[in-house]
Amino acid sequence: MSGTVREPVFAEKSEEEKVLISLDIEDDKLFLLHFIIGNYFGPDLHDDDGNKRKQSAFQIQASSNLPTKEELSASLMKRAELERVYYYVLRNADPSLVFNRKVLSRYFNEKRKASNVDFPLFRDLYPLKLHPESRIRNQYKLIKSIVFINDPDTSCMREDCVDRFKLLTGLQSFTLSLNIDVTEVDDEPLETLGTCLEGGPGNHDESEPTLEVNGVIIADAQAEQMMGLMDIGECADAYLFRVSLPGVKRDERHFSCEVEDNGRVLVRGVTTTGEKQVHRYSQVFKMKTHNLCPPGHFSVSFHLPGPVHPQEFTGSFGTDGIFEGTVMKKLQNQTV
C-alpha cells in the first residue's frame, strides 16, 4: 500500500443540491477496496418495522447523519465475511487489482495516524467506538453492528467513480447473490464473546490456515469458499488435524505434508480445479463462474497448539478430499 497518494474522500453538491461522494484515490486497487467496503456494507441500524432500506457507509457519509451507539443493533459479523465479499466482487477482475491477505489486514487493522494519512482505512468508514472488533473462542474476528447490502444504492457516488468501478471489475450490475453469516447477540456485552483487539498487522492468529496458490496468498475468506479449511483435535499425547483439499491430486509425486518440531504444518500439492475451459471427450465447456481454487501449485500452512515429534507423524489422504494427520506431542518431561 506504500507509495500511493490519496486525496481525502469528500462530498460535493450537484446542481440539484444532492451531496455526492468522490473517491479521489489514484491507485486502482485501493479505490476498489474502499469502494466495495463502503458500498456493499453499512452500519446495522435498528429497524423496528422491518421496512427500512439498508444504508451503505457512503450513503451515511453523504447524508452527514452519522448514527449513534443507541441507533445501532448488536449484530456481529465475521471479518472474513467482508473479505469474502471483496474477493467475490473482484472474482473476474485482473489479478493485479486484487490485494493479498497481508495488505488487506493492514487496511482493516490500522488506525489513522500521521504515517498513513495518504491511505484509505476501514476505520474511516466504521469508527472503532461504534464498531468494535472482538474474538469468539479465540478463533473468529468479529465486527459489531455492520450489515451486508447485496444490492447497494450507488446514487450517492459521483458518476465517474461508478464508471471506474464498472470498468475495472467488468460488472454492470451491483447486485450480488451471496449469503452472509451474521450473529445476533440480543444486546449482550461484546466483551463477553472475546477480547477486544487493538488493531494491528501483527494480530494474525498463527493457528488460522494460510492458503497460497501459485505464489499468491489467498485470504481466509477465500479459503473458506474454496479449500484450506482445517480442524485440530488433541488427546493426552498427540494432535490430530484434518484439512479440506477439494480438487487436489492425491498422487504422492505432487502431494506432500511436512510437520516441524514447533508444530508448524505445511501441506503442498497441485489443484486441478478453476480452469477457464473444461474438456470432456469431444465437448468443451467454457466456465461461467470461477469460485473454486485456481489450477496450479498451492500450499496450506498452520500451527498446531504445541511442539511435536515430526518423526512420529502419519497421514492419509481420503477420496473425500480430506487429508488427515496424526502426530505425537513433545511433552515437557520428554527428552529428544
UniProtKB/TrEMBL annotation:
Q: What is this protein called?
A: SHSP domain-containing protein
UniProt cross-references to Gene3D superfamilies, sorted A to Z: 2.60.40.790
In terms of PROSITE patterns, this protein maps to: SHSP (PS01031)
Alphabetized InterPro entries for the sequence: A-crystallin/Hsp20_dom, HSP20-like_chaperone, IDM2/3-like
Domain SHSP as annotated: residue spans: 220-336
- Species per Swiss-Prot/TrEMBL record: Brassica campestris (Field mustard)
Q: Which family does it belong to?
A: Belongs to the small heat shock protein (HSP20) family.
> In the UniProt record, which is one GO cellular component term?
nucleus
